[in-house]
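QUALITY CONTROL LOG
STEP: pairwise intake check
CHECKER ROLE: data steward
CRITERIA: each record must contain a sequence immediately followed by its structure tokens, with no blank fields

ENTRY 1 OF 2
RESULT FIELD BELOW
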Amino acid sequence: MVEPASVLLKYGFIVILYLFLIWVSRNALRDLRRGRSDGGSAVAAAPLADPLGEATSLHPLGGDPGADGLEPQLVVERGAGHEPGMAYDVGDGAVLGRGDAAEIRLQDPFASSRHARLVRQGSMVVIEDLGSTNGTYLNEELLQGPQPLHPGDRVRIGDTEFTYEDR
């Protein structure tokens, strides 16, 4: 004869397994919808300038990073362990990630230990993914190589989201 407790455990395990699968599917669909938020207009849009060339060749390197009077910041929009509105100074650049080597520590399970890097290049700040598993998103598009940041740009790593500001 089968014990009622073993039957309950068996069905409880099955229910937990299905809840986990639903959670994974929901998160995958949410990320897919975010990737499509441009309405499919990327094909019909005018060609963009080379952002890497814009970030490196149009702006002189060197000099005092604060000499231009800009104070670049990442402002928290949402994220575990961060208060919305909290600002991080990124004047000389910063590494974002879960590890001890990161200047901006993320408490996000989808973040790598060294996930992304911000680098000051003249009067521009450039963001690049450091080979993370889950990628870095700039304005809801997966980052493909270094990209310059402009005021109002949104940076997302996992479920943590920042807005870039120049003050």
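ENTRY 2 OF 2
RESULT FIELD BELOW
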Amino acid sequence: MSAHTTACCCLLLVAATVISARAQELRIEITADGHETVVFQPESGPGTVARSGGGVYYGDAPDWQNTLRMQVGGLAVADMNNDGWLDVVVGCYSSQSYPPYPDWENLIYYNTGGQLEANPSWISADEVSTGDVQIADFNNDGYLDVFAANGGYAMSPSVIYFGSAAGPSTTPGWYSQFPGGAWTNYAMPFDWDHDGDIDVVTANQGNSTSDPYRPMYGFINNNGVLATVPAWQSSETSIQNFLAFADYDGDGWEDLAVSKWVNFQSGIYRNVGGALQTAPVWTTGDTGSDKGVAWADVDANHEPDLALGHSPTRLYGNTGGALSLVWSSQASYFGHSDLRFCDVDRDGDPDLAEVHFSNGQTHIYLNNEGTLDSTPTWTYDSPSVGTALAFGDINGDWWPDLVIGYSGQPCVVVFYARPPVVHGDLNCDGSVDFGDINPFVLAMTGAAAYYAQYPSCNWHNADCNGDGAVNFGDINPFVSCLTTGECP
């Protein structure tokens, strides 16, 4: 993204910023929580992959993108109509960005045979500001539902669009009842009381400088009925933005990590026998702004480590339930909108991805034997501000594809993972020899069995006749590869 001015602003200053930007005929973008504003000259042209390291198999440009100009607050990848293909769910927010965004319905792009539709065939009937979307079967009917974490200045209630065999209803069937209302930034569906149904925790704030703070709220699910009124709330009122569960202390109960905005300390709320404590058991000791939180066992010691979207991005290593700062990114700029772990190179360890609002960049840090790369291994630089991330196998090749959300046009792009194909090399040692015979036989039984033994290899290496399928027609070409070294 070209040079621009970035400013963190209080909610009541947004209108003044908009007026000033209009006078100068500049473009402005505002985050879903209203706390960050970017002012810059309008840009045209596609984004660029500014850095591409080995092991990250995303191309130089998106493989799919939509044509809509909207503001994406959250993304999810899930099979919403039970057809065996993962769809893309998009939550959209409203703000005082300029030029104005006239539409902010929530959307689903359905996937047919590995290809997303060009235009969303599912559009929500309601139109309120959505900062996040999450997917779970809340009512235990076997169909996935969409939880929309809503808010905005109107502090609209969060809702659930209940699923069916044909996909979710476009009309909400559940509405939250927050005490005094809340601007919800994020939601985390999770069965923290281990009773077999999905509960929900929300991260929240107020809607003005005179009413800026809210507690976190927890909604309890009893036998598939999610309460509309929260039964749990944190003792601290603050501005929270992201949530993640993991059993960091090894007691069998998953604990809640939360990232918080400036003047508050991100931390962990302990789960004691299915009951969340109301005060954090651990905090970072830093009141600088954090945005984004995620758990993963980065160093393979069987204990979850904690990543935070700080400036710079941080990783806290976990040893016996004790967290300590073990890694900080050495990238040049930080302005997080989302942060996720995903094993993008399928080598068995989690890699870290992040997207930044102000400079529009998406970074991936590969994990090399328990240590994240110090600088981004892969960077995609978009002319639009970045807002959300998600991963999922959209094209059905068993590799995780990358979905990025933006405020702008396009507002959703997808990168397909495209690992290199080396026909005949089934054990991934760089050559075709007798060591490939057993894995080739395994590949003939199907991708699932093959990847269970060779997770970081490419099943399509068994397509030795190059027809796009792995079947008996590949046997003779594979034998030829072994004897002559000549493969398609």
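INTAKE CHECK: passed for both entries
DESCRIPTIVE NOTE, ENTRY 2: The chain has a mean pLDDT of 93.
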